[in-house]
Each structure stands twice: as structure tokens, then as C-alpha cells.
Amino acid sequence: MKKLSIIAIATLSAIYGSNVFAVEVTPEESGKISADLHGSAGEVSRHRGERLKTKIQWKAWSNDMEGLHPHSPKNYQVYKVEYAKPGDIYPSSGNSNEMILKENENGFAANLEKNVPFQLNSNKIVGMYYDEWAYWERSFSADLVPAKNLTHIFWSFLGLCDFGAQRPGNVTLPSTGNTGLVAEGNERGQKILKGMCGQGNLPTESGDTSWQGNDTPAKQQGDFNVTRYDPQASYYGLKALERMKKANPQLNVMVSIGGWSMSAPFHAMVETKEGRDIFVNSVMNFLSENPFVDGIDLDWEFVGSTGPSAMGNLATDGYQKEKERYTALVKELRKAMDAKYSGAQRKQLSAAVSASPAKLAAIDFNSLKDDFDFINIMTYDMYGAFARNPGHQAAVYAKPIAGTYYQQGGQDKVKDEAGNIIIDGQGNDMTGEQTQRGFSTEGAVKAILDNNPNFPSEKLVVGAAAYSRGWHSVSVKQEHDKLFWHGIANGEEVSRKGLGSNGSYEHGVTDYRELYDNIISKKQDVYYDKQAEAAYIWKPIAKVNGNPTAQVETFDSQRSVIAKGDLVKKYKLGGMFAWAASNDNGLILNSMNAAVCNKQANGSYYNFSEDYNGVVDTKVIDSQNGVPTKVDESMSGPVAYNFNGQNYCNSSTPEVPETPESQAPTVTLDKTSINVVGTSDYGFGYPVIAGSNQDSVTWKWERIEGNSDIYLKSYDKASAEIVVPKNLFDVSAKFRVTATNGDKKSGEAFVTVNVVKPAVSISGSNTMASANPVKLEAEANFDQVTYAWTLKQGAQVVANGIDQNGQIKAGLAAGDYIAEVTASSVKGARSATQTHAVKVTQEVQNNDQAFINGMKLGLQFKDEGNRYFITGTVASSQTPTSKPNYSWSPMGGTQESTNGLSYFTFSVEKTSSPQLMNLKVDVTAGKETRQLMENFTVPALSGSAGYPAWAYGNNYKAGDVVTHKGKVFECVVAGWCSQTGQWSQLHYEPEVGISWTQAWKYHK
């Protein structure tokens, strides 16, 4: 380690100001500091800022609500709300009719907060995801989205049903129950999704699932069908998106499926053609029900690797198998969408993908170049409070040296969940360190383009983060002050709450709006890493073990968004998108538009200024085999960054050549392939539109190969019509369009027409129990189709054996049957027939899964003075098919030789202090397993330092400790612990009241 001389520092200070230092750093010095394992974040802020706040609330009672299900949207409305204090959960304003949000009270014109209206004249994507849960605590309804400034809005998310209902029989992966939501701490959300799939009642706010009523938003659905997740937010959100599109016709409304906490079912769904068919058909049904939706965004996080789940690993077949299945899914979905929607009604297909080179290896972008309209690379969340080693979460470029690269296992080859070494598209494996070094915006772009040379860069869209990821306490060595990537995060445990900063609505994640209001606008503690092109906050706190320590937030600023725009120019990318609309105050979206050179609505360029307390620059001094071994880190500042949109957009770039007419024209087509189903009575014409990057060109169309009966209607215009006559089947033709400029330089593009025979396929199980009949699905390769079903046993038609929706009737005798469907269309004479074998058995339905899902563990306690007896009993609402086995694991105590039964009793000797314990039981029924666990507290010996039992209405103060139902609690807020009145016990009884965590916490 070597610092600059006093003379050098003095020179830099004269130029840049007083906040100056420089230090040389090697891998041996970066990240080599011990973490303090104590401390955790405080409460989230719930910062909403000074803006219009809108929220779904229960309507004032009226007679027309009588008998409705509590989740029926008819019980709710979008209201304008206010809060007495920023951190309040519930608004202080009422839900009167005067407060209902009117249709003209919205932000669609980009006129709220700091949004500035833009023209969308750059031909680049400017997109934003909208999180449907923002309707609730964030009080940011879809009505507030600045749609005028967007080419694409992504509604997030649709979920996938996966609860073991009507599941294709040959899927080997267990049903996940969408436990990703539980793994993220959202158990009620899992119950909501289960209810929306028709596999149980929807829970109330307290989690109660006994409520029933009319107009339920749920419907019975089998596994792998897509479903709306939130019954109220999705109802009002989709209505808002439809109005949003009417107000801004340029807007493309996309609906995203999956997301971080709801992607677990993808792994089983793609495993078989039957599973993919269910998914594709349900997506097509959703598009039919919501015709204003312009496309589907697949957000599987992640292909080849399991995201959050309580099921363990799910990508057990390895990334190569999942790569093949993902390719098949995308192609099948693209085919279905194109078959039904063409021309102006054509639907777009996109995907959100990881920025990690290892995860990107699980997607065959080359094979999908014609299927995807574009790809959203999630160039954020690269670092965060899910790990102790900090780094920039959304940097354009990776750091040459950072502590996270040199952790244990960093030199091991990266493997998938099946144990296979991951190989990229060039045949290279990678170590953990190499993967981390490629973890950046540019690294993700290069990983896709280098490994998939046929994939167009114009279809790649990079992401901006309208939020920070942060740690409540990061320590660095004295010489690395403010260089947080060389430090370590302190905290109780490796979890977001243990390591993360307070956050706006979850620990470790703070909205850009809050960063701006509380820190950026006050010009405090904000720094910029020039080499990484990333902003961060270093907010000093007390030293830890003598080391400089601070709260750290890493985020995209306006300056780093412009740096991502430079990357869009450099690689000729398709544009930018951001997560998420509810986090931004307008400045991130403004800078995104400026970064792709959209002018403001008034015709002027966008300019801005940002102040930084310091700017870090990193230079590589030494390297070995291309890997940096020593860097110079220098800090200067304070610095003001001034952005001039006109200068930025008028600068010469590869994207806009200075003399384009001296080069050959580039030709693009709105489609490069046309798939046609032949007819027997008349032909069809298919328009194709060409475009060029040069204005004054002449056009020429010609058929260059294939069937000569397929012909062109025009030859010398940018648009042409390709005609497929009747009675053509299983033939193809290829056409070329040429654009020639005044310098006689030409560019060309090609479109292929494939004509196939009418066909119909049947999907569904080949076996069924007589008492549990299956439903078959037919899909023709042509539209405006009607289906006619028959069921035969041998040569005999079974009367009413199958209805015209493909549902086989119950009660059939055991045996072999043939289901036959004939598909026909009046749009051109098209007809096709297909058969499907079905074996009917009298097998008893396996009820083990239902038994396992219905289990609950109950505890009973008996106090015998010096000993405390605990009896655990497992009960289920369902009867299993197989005999269950119970394996009990008490924490402490004496076993009473009841292991293997559904009940278990043991005792614990009492001590002078209460004892926190738990009881676990692993239950097996057939092939199904599940673990249940309950925590409890053994009270102290009488007359010792035990705690009193909780009593309703007692006058508690903060810090008081009580016992209740076998557990120990500590009062947090005296006013709530001691509440009396009509609703107090319902809300604040420890571990029972729906808002008890506001008053009490578990006592450690």
C-alpha cells in the first residue's frame, strides 16, 4: 500500500478542493477486515414524499356490498389519501366519496413530481416496470405513472398456479406451492395466490381463510395456468393501464409473468410439452380477456437456477436441460401469439434476464433471435444486503479490485444445481471470481453478444434502478475511507434485515424518492465512482473496532443513467428500462429519456446538474495475465456534474454517422418470417413493411427461391404484399428487398414464407381415474376455429362421453378410449382431425399431498412445578392414502417413547430463567414430506426471575416483558401495548392481533 506524497495531495487540493486523497490497493488488502456480527437495521421509513398519494381502500359500507366476498373489487375503490406522519401504515384521511380518485386526476401526462414531458422521437425503448403492490402501503396507484414519457410499461406480476391440482402426470418435480413468497416472508401472499388459483379461500388481512361470499375474484385452475396475483390491485391496475394507453397511444402495455418471488413453478412447467401447453394456452386466454395488452414479458428468475423457495433446489436437471426447455417455451409461445395476432394486432414478446454471466449461459439467445422482440437485462441488484461483501448494485463497469472477488471458493469453477460445470457459448468455463468480475452492465451486454453472435444488439435493453441497495453499517480500513467496495458489512446475520439499511418499505432497499428528499437534495454524503460509473452514499456513523464505518447506499443517479446511455450508443442497444415506477420521483425517467436523446415536449434538450461530495477515479497500475493486481484509488471533490443534452446528443457516435449517405443503407423489416396455414377455397395477402436508415432510396422486391405460385403484389415500394393462393401446402418461398441510395450503394433484407397444412393437436393426460376425469385441450394452427369432440371405445361412440370443451365425463368403465377432435374454420376452408388415447382406471386418488398440505401442529402445556410438560399433536383436515410416519425432534427435554406417532410428549426441567425452545416434526406420507415447527417458552421456576403473563388492559411501558401462550414478548410502544377499546385486543394481543408487531417484539 502506498499513499500519494503531501506535495501531490496539495496540488490536487488546489485543483479539486479539500476532499482529496489517493491510495494504492492490492487484492491482499481489499476486503481483509473482520465484520462485527452485532447490530441490525431499525424500522423501515415508509417515506412517500410530497406527492399525490392514492390507495385502494375498503369503501364505506352500503347495502350493495351485502354478501360480497371481502376480496371482491366491488368492495374497494381508489382514494386520494394523506398520512399524519410519513411512517404511518394507515392513512389519516377517510374513504369518503369526495376523496375518490377521478379519471382525470392522473399523472399520465408526466406532470407530477419532477417528471418533465418528453417527445419519444429516438426510436429507442424507454420502459418502466410497475409493481402492483404499490397500490397499498406505498400509496402509488397506476394512475400516477408518467405514461407520456414511456414507450413500454410492464405490469408486474402475473403468477403461476402450482399447488398439485390437475398437474400433467409426467412432471417429476414436486409442486412448489409458490413457496418463494413464504421464503421472502410473505405467507399471506402465498395464501392469496393459492386462493386466486381456486385451491383455497382467500385470506383476510389477519390471515383468516374462513371468509366466503359472492363475486370472488378467484377461479378454479390447474397447475401452470397464469393468474392475477392480487385480486384488487390487479383489477384496478389493469383498468388504469387501459386508460393510460388510450391517453397515450404510443404506449405499449406489457404484462410480466413471474418475478423474484413467484418464479419457482417455471422449473416444473417447462419440463414437459404438456406443462408448456397449459402455460401457453392460459397466456393466450389472458390476452383474449385483456385485448389492450400489447405483449408478454417472461420474468423467470432464473433459468437454470432456483430463486427463493422453501423447496430446496428446483433446477435439478441442470442448466443445459432448462436451456432447451426455455427455448421450446419461448418458441411455442411466439408461435401461438403469431397464429392469433398479426399485422397491427401482433403481440410483443420480451424477457427479463439476469446480468450474471453464469446465469446468462442458461439461455440460448442465438436460437431465440427471431422470437423475442427485445430483452430487458436486469443491470441492477448485482450487490446488496443479501451478502456481507458490498459492491455497486447497478454499475456500468466492474471494479478492477474489490473485496468480494477474493472470498473463499472464488477460484472454484461455477456449477449448476445438478453439479455440472457451467460452460459459456464459446466453450469456456468460469470461476466465481471471473463471474463477479463480469458482473456489470457492460459485462452482461458482452456476455450475451460475445456468446450469441447472431443475436441483434438492437434487441438488448439495459436497466436502471430507481432505488438503492444498502447496508446499515460498512467498515473499511482507515486508508480506504469511503471506498466501501474494499470493506465488509456488519450485522447480526447474513440477511437483509441483519445487514441492510432501514429502507423505505423493506430492509436494504430505499426508494430514489427518499434518497433524493433526505440526502441528494441536501448535498450530503453523495459520491460518484467515475471508473465504475456508479453513485453511492457514504453516511458516517461511529467507528467500529477503530475502522471508518458508514451507512452505504448504492444506486443509479442521473449521471450514471447517462453513462448507461453511452453504453447504449457504444453497442447500438435498443434502449433503457427501469425498476420501478413507484420508486422514482421523475428524475430517473427524465435522465433515461435524455440518455437516448429524446427531446422534451417543448423541443428543447434536457439539462441537469448534480452535486457530489467526492468523485473516485480508479487506475490500474499492475496486472498479471490480464487481471489487475494493483490499483490507484484517488478521491477529489466536491464536484458539480453538469449535463448538456444538446452536446451529448450531437456528439459523434457509431449510432449516428456524420455522413450516412456515403455508406450503404441499412434495411429493416417489420417481419422476417411469415408462417401461413394453407386453405382450399381462397388465398390471403400478407403485408411486409421495409425501412431504411436513409431517406432517399429506391426499393426493389423479388422472389429469389421457393414455390413460384407465391407471388408479390408490389415491387418498387417500401411496403409489399406477399400473396399465398389456395391449395398450397408444405411449400415455402424467400423474398428479398433491396434499398439503393444515390451513390448506388445498396442494402438488403430477406423474408421467408412457410405454408403448412391445417393441423390440430391435443394436450392432456393419457390416463385418468374414473372418478377424477381429465379435460383435454385442442389447439389448431389456424384461427377462427371451432372444435368438435367425440369419445370412442373401440368402434363404439360413447354417448355424451366428452363435452365440446374437451371435458371427459366421470364414471366411465375402466378400459381404453380414443378421444377425437375435428378443428374447422370459416376463415378459409381449413379442417384437421387428431386423436388422443386415454386409459381409464378405477384407481383410488392419492390423497397424500392434500393430507400433507392440510397438516397443523398444535401444542399443549402442563406445568408440574419443577418440570414443564409439552405435548405436540399433528392433525390434518384430510385423510392420507398412505400410512404417515412422524419423526419428532424436540430442542432439549426428555423423550417419552412416543416417536413415530402423531403425538409426542416430553418434559423440560425449569430453571430460574425462561427458556426459548422449539419442537419440530418431519411427517412422511407416501412420497410426500413436510416439516412443521412451533416455538414455545418454558417459564421460569416460581419465585425466580420469571415474567408475568400478559393481561388485556394492563398499563405496560416500553421494555416490559410478559409471557403469552408459551412465548416471551417485550413491549416496544407503551401506548399500543396498553391499548383498550373495541379493537385493541384484535389488533395488539401478542402474536395474535393483526397489528401486534407494532406494539410488541419477541424478547431475546
From TrEMBL:
GO terms for molecular function: carbohydrate binding; chitin binding; endochitinase activity. Pfam families: Glyco_hydro_18 (PF00704). The keyword DNA-binding does not apply. Keywords: Carbohydrate metabolism, Chitin degradation, Glycosidase, Hydrolase, Polysaccharide degradation, Signal. Residues 1-22 form the signal peptide. Residues 124-599 form the GH18 domain. GO terms for biological process: chitin catabolic process; polysaccharide catabolic process. Transmembrane segments: none annotated. GO terms for cellular component: extracellular region. InterPro entries: CBM5/12 (IPR003610), Chitinase_II/V-like_cat (IPR011583), Chitinase_insertion_sf (IPR029070), GH (IPR017853), Glyco_hydro18_cat (IPR001223), Glyco_hydro_18_chit_AS (IPR001579), Glycosyl_Hydrlase_18 (IPR050314). It comes from the Bacteria. It catalyses: Random endo-hydrolysis of N-acetyl-beta-D-glucosaminide (1->4)-beta-linkages in chitin and chitodextrins. It is an enzyme of class 3 (hydrolase). The keyword Methyltransferase does not apply. This is chitinase.
